[in-house]
């Protein structure tokens, strides 16, 4: 019996497993922002299928298939199924690419979070057509899968010609049957797992549990005990410099994070990796404050490469045109250990008045600073396109860092 070469066998089973996974994922994953990560995975696997299919076709041209076991209509039908498989495995990724390219929401494509792929030059008016074509081809692929499996069963059980051994590693029929079962298991397990995780009722229960355990109301900034602690020894720390405010150096290891609610995805959390500040501040005389914080917008991240690309793009932080955000303030007010300052925030080419609340702990010239600010993204034209329509306007910014102070010379 003549069998396929090792290269053809490897490509056959790799494509079978990838296509089973891709179809199951595509039909089971939720639509909208709640399925963002699965959507990115779906695009990546689709691109891999496209590349593997082209490679498989090239391999077939250089390595002809072994002679057919049977002729007649059965052979012609089998050949039609194989040719159709090649067509849909190329057409499905291409129509998916067209869907992404024509979508009114500009979602960049990073294959497996690494390789950027641009959009096709397709008008938004063709988006629905691309979606319909993509869905029809997916159903066609499922039909071809069924026909392909039915043909293999016919050869194995009715004709007894051990066809599956021709496409099995080493010509071993048992290995081929095991691989076929594995492909079916991949599709079934993927569909059940993704469907279960995407179930609305389950999501509501999970969200309720998380909100009760992980999203408590923010603690008040002012307490009597912290006010009492803060007051201890402050006077002795600055008594030699009654007129000049200490200058504070921000120590490494601080955090500057942000969070915003999304109607479908829940809460989106992110942070800035690079930021710095010049701070002159006397805890006893906050009205003398001189604060300037500069944030490198290109260091913003929500932990996902594709979403990070969107975040830094023109629709959101616009880091390419405005690389930094700057907050400046010249005074603050005090309530115990808690302080409040109102300054100017320059972001995305716009200046707005912005309030920031913070509290101090520690004594003398070594302090820990923790605080937050609530800003309206729409005031800075952030997320004003289709991608941001489900985002809450309010963005919570939180920060925490240690600082050491020095007294300026008289």
Instruction: List the quaternary state of the chains.
Output: single chain
CATH topology of the largest domain: Fumarate Reductase Cytochrome B subunit
The major beta sheet can be summarized as: 8 strands, antiparallel, barrel
Order of strands across the main sheet: 3-6-7-9-11-12-13-14
Please report the number of helical segments.
Answer: 9
Which H/E pattern describes the elements? HHHEEHHHHHEEEEEEHEEEEEE
Number of domains: 2
User: Distance between the terminal alpha carbons, to the nearest Å?
Assistant: 97 Å
The top level CATH class name of the largest domain: Mainly Alpha
What is the arithmetic mean of pLDDT? 84
- Net shape: elongated
Low-confidence stretches: 200-242
Helix % is: 40-55%
Q: Which architecture of the largest domain would the CATH scheme give at its second level? A: Up-down Bundle
Structural class: alpha+beta
| Structural Rg | 30 Å
Written description of the protein model:
The chain has 9 helices and 14 strands. The chain is an alpha+beta fold. The protein folds into 2 domains: 6-207, Fumarate Reductase Cytochrome B subunit (Up-down Bundle); 243-406, Beta Barrel (Lipocalin). Strands 3-6-7-9-11-12-13-14 form an 8-stranded antiparallel beta barrel. The protein has a two-stranded antiparallel sheet with strand order 1-2. The longest helix has 33 residues, at 127-159. The relative contact order is 0.11.
């Amino acid at each position: 019996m003549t069998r396929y070469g090792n290269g053809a066998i490897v490509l056959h089973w790799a494509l079978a497993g990838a296509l089973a996974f891709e179809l199951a994922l595509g039909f089971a994953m939720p639509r909208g922002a709640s399925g963002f990560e699965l959507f990115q995975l779906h695009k990546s696997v689709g691109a891999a299928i496209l590349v593997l299919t082209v490679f498989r076709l090239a391999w077939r041209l250089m390595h002809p298939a072994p002679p057919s076991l049977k002729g007649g209509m059965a052979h012609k039908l089998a050949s039609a199924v194989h040719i159709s498989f090649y067509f849909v495995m190329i057409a499905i990724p291409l129509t998916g690419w067209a869907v992404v390219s024509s979508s009114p929401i500009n979602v960049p494509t990073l294959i497996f979070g690494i390789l950027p792929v641009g959009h096709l030059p397709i008008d938004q008016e063709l988006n629905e057509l691309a979606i319909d074509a993509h869905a029809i081809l997916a159903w066609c692929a499922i039909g071809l899968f069924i026909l392909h499996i039915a043909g293999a069963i016919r050869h194995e059980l009715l004709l007894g010609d051990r066809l599956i051994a021709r496409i099995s590693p080493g010509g071993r029929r048992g290995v081929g049957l095991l691989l076929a079962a594995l492909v079916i298991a991949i599709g079934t397990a993927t569909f059940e797992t993704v469907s279960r995780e995407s179930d609305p009722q389950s999501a509501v229960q999970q969200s309720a549990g998380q909100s009760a355990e992980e999203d408590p109301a923010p603690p008040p900034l002012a307490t009597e005990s912290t006010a009492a602690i803060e007051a201890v020894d402050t006077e002795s720390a600055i008594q030699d410099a009654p007129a000049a405010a200490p200058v504070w150096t921000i120590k490494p290891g601080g955090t500057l994070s942000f969070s915003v609610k999304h109607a479908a995805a829940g809460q989106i959390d992110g942070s800035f990796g690079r930021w710095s500040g010049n701070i002159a501040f006397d805890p006893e005389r906050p009205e003398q404050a001189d604060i300037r914080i500069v944030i490198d917008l290109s260091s913003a991240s929500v932990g996902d490469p594709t979403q990070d690309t969107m975040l830094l793009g023109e629709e959101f932080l616009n880091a390419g045109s405005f690389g930094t955000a700057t907050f400046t303030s010249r005074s603050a007010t005090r309530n115990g250990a808690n302080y409040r300052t109102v300054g100017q925030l320059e972001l995305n080419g716009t200046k707005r008045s912005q309030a920031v609340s913070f509290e101090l702990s520690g004594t003398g010239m070594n302090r820990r600073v923790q605080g937050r600010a609530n800003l309206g993204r729409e005031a800075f034209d952030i997320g004003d396109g289709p991608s941001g329509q489900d985002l809450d306007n309010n963005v919570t910014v939180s920060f925490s860092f240690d600082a050491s102070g020095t007294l300026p010379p008289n």
